[in-house]
Each structure stands twice: as structure tokens, then as C-alpha cells.
Amino acid sequence: MSVIAHLRIPASSFELGRILEMEGGTSIVLENLVPLGEKAVPFFTVHDASRDAFEKNVRKHPSVESIREVSKHNSQTLYALGWAVSRDLFFQAIVEADAQLLSATGTSTTWEFELRFPTHTALSEFQESCSNGRIPLEVGRIYNPTKPGTGPWYGLTNTQRDTLMRAVQGGYYSIPRRMSTKDLAEAFDISDQAVTERLRRAIITLVENTLVAAMDDEFEAVD
């Protein structure tokens, strides 16, 4: 099953961070990382206010082969960078782990990444590669993506979510049970049968959008 990880890394500890060094409070957004043969071409946006100085600094970096303006929109310019990714242990580890770049934003001091790894094993191997390369990687939130389109509450309606949370927190599922179906029904001003049906639907929805979705991902990975 795929896993998403939020990472933080000092800009000075990986090659691309040093190449794309920004001044002051200016930030840069890495839009995509496209593998082309043995290369990985990053696409990123820069605010026009710092564009000239940025281009000058990037072009003179020894790892840069080319920098190309792709498009402009409002006050931002989208660039494509040709560089020697093999010299960047951090991005080489991303490529080798077959990870997908979801988001990345950098400043003069720090970069933050959101990466999707095909498996937990791939994430562990990526972390090991960074450790071996002495890259000070700070790993934040790690989670499994749920079934697409389910939203932040895994497809639950507000009433299903509130009822299920009240049931769990009130001890409905505890042994011995501290809350009855009648207590729940009175709390939401509905019948015993209605609250039982609401809980049943909520549990089915949760299972389908988490456990079943995770199992489907594992089968797809095997195929």
C-alpha cells in the first residue's frame, strides 16, 4: 500500500537546494519532477521580483546544464532545470525509491516535501539512503492515502461522524458498556433503531474507504 510522508530538510544539505538558493524571505515552489531517461527534470516557479538574480545564480552553478523558461503567469515564471541529478544524493534516493513528488517548497534555509512512496518498505529504504548519505532529514507526518474522493472524514456524513465519535467516546463499545443505544438515541433525538442503523452505515463506510481501499492498493501493487 502506498504511503505519504511529509519531510523537512536544510537547503544546504542537498544539491538542488544549493542550486536554487533564494535570498531573504523569497520562496520557490517545486511543481514537478519528471524522469527523462537517466535524468530527473525539476519544474519550479519563481516570483518575477527575484527572477534576474535567481537566473544568474543558477546558471553559474557547476551542476547546472541548462535552465529554460517554460511559461509565465501573472507574477510567476515556470522554469525547467537540466542538472546532474546523480550528484544529489537526496533526489537520487527519491528517484530510486520510485517516489512521487506531491509538493515541495523551499526558502534560503529549509525545504519541505510531501512525497508518495509505493510501499512502507520503499519509504524505509529512502530514509536509510538519506542516513547513509548523512542528510539530516526530519520526517513529520506519515499516513496512508484513503480511497479517492472520500474527503477528510473517509466518506462519513457529519451525522455519521458525530454519532460514531459520541459512541466511542461515551463508552458504547467499551466492556462493560458505559453507554446504551437508548442513551445515544436520546442524545441525537432519534429512535433506537435509527441510531443503530446510523452506526452500522458509518462503520461500513469507514471500512470500505480505509481497509478495503488499502487492500485494493496492495493487490494492484502485486499485479
UniProtKB/TrEMBL annotation:
Span of domain HTH bat-type: 156-207
Coiled coil feature spans: none
Database matches in InterPro entries: BAT_GAF/HTH-assoc, HTH_bacterioopsin
Residue stretches spanning the membrane: none
Record keywords, A-Z: Transcription, Transcription regulation
Cited Pfam families: BAT (PF15915), HTH_10 (PF04967)
Record domain Bacterioopsin transcriptional activator GAF and HTH associated: where: 13-131
Lineage: superkingdom: Archaea
Name listed for the protein in its UniProt record: Bacterio-opsin activator HTH domain-containing protein
Natural source organism: Haloferax elongans ATCC BAA-1513
